[in-house]
Each structure stands twice: as structure tokens, then as C-alpha cells.
TrEMBL record:
MF terms in GO: kinase activity
Family matches, as CDD domains: ASKHA_NBD_FGGY_BaEryA-like
High-level lineage: Bacteria, Pseudomonadati, Pseudomonadota, Alphaproteobacteria, Rhodobacterales
Protein family: Belongs to the FGGY kinase family.
An annotated GO BP: carbohydrate metabolic process
Domain Carbohydrate kinase FGGY N-terminal: start-end pairs: 7-250
Annotated protein name in UniProt: Carbohydrate kinase
């Protein structure tokens, strides 16, 4: 290992694949990225080419090599994480069609059928994870009922990072995090036959790959993968956990001075996590959320996820951009983002409820409803555009609070990453929504860092993950930003209205979904 002073983290997200180099102490050296591409269908499909995803990953690694002198000889190991859920089927001769992504909504009828069955609560209590259309289990059950030929032609069902691990090493495997929240038990980190039976997939059991922990096991980079990536054959490769917990690990969900901390990634989607001991998990009565293992013995994350977070801000800013463009005053997204702080200053807090369910796939946290849609409650003639901006921003805070409330008591400290972390005004809203101080991680690429931390432990650069966190994570946490007491009071008053209206809206969402299904109908 002489001269091998770098670790490479690969983070294959929904929109971008990144390859990032770190030194052994956690300092980011360079990064390379390639835009990811997927296709959406009118039937709710969201699919991605396996072959192109691997090509893009290899391109990102070659790009990193162009930025870092001697990268191949200096790389002590690389690790890979990626977008969670979804179904990436591989057969004897390679991919079986395109992957079904976590955005794919086609399994909604199967989710409704399985969730209504008598075995679903037991499945939830083993996995800690509510059933939704994003998950591989639901998608495979739907395929089994409606497109069994896909599963018949497959030899293994993988996730995104597993597919890239196969492409890098030739090894078919998955990790404890995705295996246990989909098909297993978070306490044992192994598959659970009763869970598989509850999904109606016992006869497909042989499609599930072996489970390996990337802090303990690595496999060598193959000669073919070395040729495509520009790295050296034999370089150790670690299979990371799913990207949600890798990002949270890199951003500070575990460790540091505070005991009761949480970590939210508020980007296009919202991912809200808190690290707890396995025996302290709070399983809510609604049977929603995820329990996802961390690469630390006995520690898991409780997770609730919003399908859309800053996508809501993109939408409301897009309204302004469209109007201005129609009037001959074209503006770009960056110009409008720069005005958010000013618009927030022109509006009063806590006046309008906004439910941020803007995704076409509905919502999955802290409730599951594929027909959920965004909307305002409480508009009056005196409200103006700045009030809408504030309501949308507050909607993100209320949705975050809704998610954390479903996991138990609200956290004492919030560590924040993602696009919202860059705005002081948005940070203030999120902090006050939880009545918790906010600390922002200075880590640029937290997901890739989390994966690389697993490789650091695997090759013995650190004796355990706690020691790695002390160097890679804790020093990068910024000072605590204390919530504004006036905002806290406003949002304590706003949240009951948010929650009550959210609970009352499903019949309206059902009716709207039925109306949308009558394409071309005229009364």
C-alpha cells in the first residue's frame, strides 16, 4: 500500500454520478461528475439504462483521473453508494431491460393490495419500513403479478450501487442496509423469510443476492473495469450502504457533542434521519418510514423521506420566471434564488399552510399516498407573491417536523445538508420548525465521503467508524445557529393547522385522481 494515499468515493445519485477523491484523513482533493439520465412514462414509469449508468460511472472515474496526478497508483481503495430502492435486474447475459427507479409509481396497486393484507404489520415490524412504490419488494411483487417474464429472465435483483459494484468487481452482492429494510430484519441485518413471504415472493427468493458489509469485506477491481476506469486492477472496492445513510454519515448523523441529533438532506427531495440503537427504534402506528442500518454495530437510522423538498421552491420560482418571460423579461433560476431572502423579509410567518407534495409520485413520508398533491390552505386577497414564497419554504419546515414527529420526540440538534443549507433564511425556518439549533456540515460531497469512510475502515486506515467520524465529520460541523423564538412560536401555532389539513385532504386527492383519470371526458 506504499504511496497509496487516496480513497475514492462514488455516489451514483438520481441526477448526477460523482467520483470524489479524499486523502486518508478525509480532506476532499478533487471531484468529477457526469449527469445521470432517466426516462419517465405516462403510466408512472421511471426507468434508467444499466449499461449507460455503468458507462457514466466509468466516465466520472476517468474524469477524476484527469484531475488528480497519479490517481490510479495512489488509490488505496474505492467505495460505491447510490440511489436507493428501485429494481435493477441482471440475467445470465447482462441487464434484463432498464432499471425501475425509486421514482417509478407503477407498483401503486400492488402496494395497496399488500398493505391491506394481514401479514403487512409483521413485515413492517421486522423491516421497520413502510411499504411504498419506491421499494424493490413492492416493484418485484408487481412485476411478478403483471410482468413475470422480467423476473423469469433475471438471475439476480440488485440496486443501483450493487449494479455498479458488479460492474467494478464481477461480484453479485448487496449491503445490509437495503437488504434489511426491503426483505429482512434490521436487528439481524439479514433476510427474513417471513418478510419475503409477506411480499408474495418466496418463489423468487433465489433472486436476492448475498449480503456483504463493505467495512469488513472488499473485492478487487477487475481487469476489464480497470481498463474502462483508468484505475489499477486489484484495487480494493468496498460496497457502501444506500446513499441516504452514506450522506447522513458524512454530514454528521452520528457522533459529535450532542447526543440527540438528527440529520436532514434538504435537496430536490427531503431525507430526515436520526441515529438510534436498534432496541430504541420507534415504530409508528401508521407503519411508515424506514429503518436503515448504519455501518456501525447496533446502530440504525430511523428515516422519513419527503418525495419533494426544494422541488417545491423550483416550482414557485418557475411561476415568476414564466410570467416574466412571457412579458419579455427573461430571468434565470439563479437570479430568482438570489431574491428568496428578500421575499422572506417582506412576508409574515405562519399565515398560510402549504403542503409540499409537488411530486407526481405523491408522498411517502410520514404517510404513503401516491395521489397526494401540493396545495395552499388559507390564501386571502391580501396575499402576494412573497407570501407564497414564505408559505412554500414553511411547508418544507412543517413537512420536516411531521416526519420527525413520526419517529418520536423532536431532536435536540439538526445537522443540515443539501441545497436548503445554503440559505440563511431557509435554515432559520427549518430550525424554528423543530425548535432545534442547526449546524451545517462543511462537507461538499457527503454521500461520497460516507462511502469512502467505509473503505477507510475496511483497509485499516481507521480501527472503527467512530474513529473515522472524529477525523472526517466532527471537525467540519459549523457553529450551532439558535432558532428565533418568535419564529418558533409562529410555527408551533402553524403546525396543528398543517397536520389537521393534511389529514383531511385524502378524499380530495382521491377525487382529483379520479378526475385526472377521465382523459378527454366532457360532462
Amino acid at each position: 500500500m506504499s504511496g497509496r494515499d487516496l480513497l475514492i468515493g462514488i455516489d451514483a445519485g438520481t441526477s448526477v454520478i460523482k467520483a470524489v477523491a479524499f486523502d486518508l484523513g478525509g480532506r476532499q482533493v478533487a471531484a468529477s461528475s457526469v449527469a445521470n439520465r432517466y426516462h419517465s412514462g405516462a403510466d408512472g414509469a421511471a426507468t434508467q439504462s444499466l449499461a449507460r449508468t455503468w458507462d457514466d460511472c466509468a466516465t466520472a472515474l476517468r474524469g477524476l483521473g484527469a484531475k488528480v496526478d497519479g490517481l490510479a497508483a495512489r488509490a488505496a481503495a474505492l467505495a460505491v453508494t447510490g440511489q436507493g430502492d428501485g429494481t435493477w435486474l441482471v440475467g445470465r447475459d447482462g441487464p434484463v431491460g432498464d432499471a425501475w427507479l425509486w421514482l417509478d409509481a407503477r407498483a401503486a396497486p400492488t402496494v395497496a393490495r399488500l398493505a391491506g393484507g394481514g401479514a403487512d404489520r409483521a413485515r413492517f415490524e421486522a423491516t421497520g419500513t413502510g411499504l411504498n412504490t419506491c421499494q424493490q419488494g413492492a416493484q418485484m411483487a408487481h412485476m411478478d403479478a403483471h410482468a413475470p417474464d422480467l423476473l423469469d429472465r433475471a438471475q439476480v435483483a440488485l440496486h443501483c450501487k450493487d449494479w455498479l459494484y458488479l460492474s467494478l468487481t464481477g461480484v453479485r452482492a448487496t449491503d445490509p442496509s437495503e437488504a434489511s429494510f426491503t426483505f429482512g430484519d434490521f436487528r439481524t441485518r439479514q433476510y427474513d423469510d417471513a418478510v419475503i413471504a409477506a411480499l408474495g415472493l418466496t418463489h423468487r427468493r433465489d433472486l436476492l443476492p448475498p449480503i456483504i458489509d463493505g467495512t469488513q469485506v472488499t473485492h478487487p477491481l477487475t481487469a476489464d473495469a480497470a481498463r474502462q476506469t483508468g484505475l489499477l486492477a486489484g484495487t480494493p472496492v468496498s460496497l457502501g450502504y444506500v446513499d441516504m445513510v452514506m450522506t447522513a454519515l458524512g454530514a454528521g448523523v452520528y457522533g459529535g457533542a450532542a447526543g440527540d441529533v438528527a440529520c436532514s438532506t434538504v435537496g430536490s427531495t427531503g431525507v430526515h434521519l436520526r441515529a438510534v440503537r436498534s432496541q430504541d427504534v420507534h415504530l409508528n402506528d401508521q407503519g411508515t418510514g424506514y429503518v436503515i442500518c448504519l455501518p456501525i454495530p447496533g446502530i440504525v437510522t430511523q428515516v422519513q423521506t419527503n418525495m419533494a423538498a426544494t422541488l417545491n421552491l423550483d416550482w414557485v420560482l418557475g411561476l415568476a420566471a414564466g410570467i416574466l418571460s412571457d412579458m419579455g423579461h427573461a430571468v434565470n433560476h439563479r437570479d430568482l434564488v438570489a431574491h428568496i431572502e428578500g421575499w422572506l423579509a417582506q412576508s409574515r410567518p405562519g399565515q398560510i399552510v402549504y403542503h409540499p407534495y409537488i411530486s407526481d409520485a405523491g408522498e411517502r413520508g410520514p404517510f404513503v399516498n401516491a395521489d397526494a398533491r401540493a396545495g395552499f390552505v388559507g390564501l386571502s386577497a391580501g396575499h402576494r407573491y412573497p407570501d407564497l414564497i414564505r408559505a412554500v419554504a414553511e411547508g418544507l419546515g412543517m413537512a420536516m417536523r411531521d416526519c420527525y414527529a413520526a419517529m418520536g420526540p423532536l431532536p435536540a440538534e439538526l445537522r443540515l445538508t443539501g441545497g436548503a443549507a445554503r440559505s440563511r433564511g431557509l435554515r432559520g425556518i427549518l430550525s424554528a420548525s423543530l425548535n432545534a439549533p442547526v449546524r451545517v456540515s462543511g462537507r461538499d460531497e457527503a454521500g461520497a465521503a460516507g462511502a469512502a469512510m467505509m473503505a477507510a475502515v475496511a483497509i485499516g486506515a481507521y480501527p472503527d467508524m467512530e474513529a473515522c467520524i472524529a477525523d472526517w465529520v466532527t471537525p467540519l460541523l459549523g457553529d450551532a445557529e439558535i432558532p428565533d423564538p418568535a419564529l418558533v412560536a409562529a410555527y408551533d401555532a402553524l403546525f396543528p393547522a398543517f397536520a389537521a389539513s393534511r389529514r383531511a385532504l385524502p378524499p380530495a386527492w382521491d377525487a382529483l385522481a379520479a378526475a385526472r383519470s377521465l382523459k378527454g371526458h366532457r360532462p
